[in-house]
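User: I'm curious whether this sequence folds into something compact or stays loose and floppy. Could you predict its structure so I can see for myself?
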Amino acid sequence: MSVKITLTFTNGTLKGQKREFSRPGKVVIGRSNDCDLQLPTTLEFMDVSRHHCVLDIDPPALQVRDLGSRNGTFVNGENISQRRGSRDSGSGEVTGANGEPGWHVLKEGDELRIGSITLRVEVSVRPVREAVGRGAGLWPFFRLWARSAIPC
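Assistant: Here's the prediction. I'll summarize afterward.
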C-alpha cells in the first residue's frame, strides 16, 4: 500500500499549492533557510516564525508540535503553542513516539494554521499494483476462456 500525506494551502498567495509526503521523517516549517518547508520571507508571512513548528510524519500518522512560535500554531482553531501560560488537561496533547510532550495528532480534513497561513491535511491510501508477468494469475485464463466462448 502507498500512503501519501498532502498539505494544501487554503489561503494567501500560496492558495492551492500542495506539499506531499510519503516517507517518514521530521519536517520543520518556518521562514528560515534551513527549514524543510520554507515559507517566503515576504510581508504576508511575517507572522510565521523562522522555526515555527515541526511535523512528525510516519504515513499514515502525522503529528505537529509548536517550536515556541510567537504567533502560535493552531489545529482546527485550537492553539497548541508552547508559549501559552497554562495548559488545559483536555487539550488533545499527546506524547510523541520519542516521549516528548506537546505533540498533537493531525487527521484527514484537519486544518493546521501557522500564523495566518492555513493548510488542510489529506491522507490518501492507494493499493500498489503488483507487476504481473505474462501467464501469471487468472487473467490469462479468463482471456482464453473469453476467446473460446465467442462463436466463430
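Summary: Residues 5 and 12 are 21 Å apart (CA to CA). The chain has one helix and eleven strands.
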